[in-house]
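dumping this here before i forget
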Amino acid sequence: MRSTAATARAENAVVRLCHSGLGVSELQPRVLSSLRTLMPVDAAFFPTADPETLLLTGAYVEEPLGASTPLFLANEFGVPDVNKFASLATATAGGICACTGRITRSASPPTRSPWSRG
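structure:
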């Protein structure tokens, strides 16, 4: 398990990167590198989205996910599904549970996300 100090350092690294003024193509692999210090990531699909419409505008894609990108996009925009990016991006945890039909209460004790500011 990661220490609180290591988690805070990684979180601060991501925040610094996001405020660094880097272009998207430079930012995405650096943010992923910082996230990989917190959790294992085998491959990433790291999209950019229009903030008004939440439509995807591009993506940093690592293999083997590149070959699956057309399938992901067809599912995201071509067929009804409760787990659409735009819905998940704007939903609360309770809203996600309601959308997916999963129970809203966990049997495990509540935890604070390392990404929360509260």
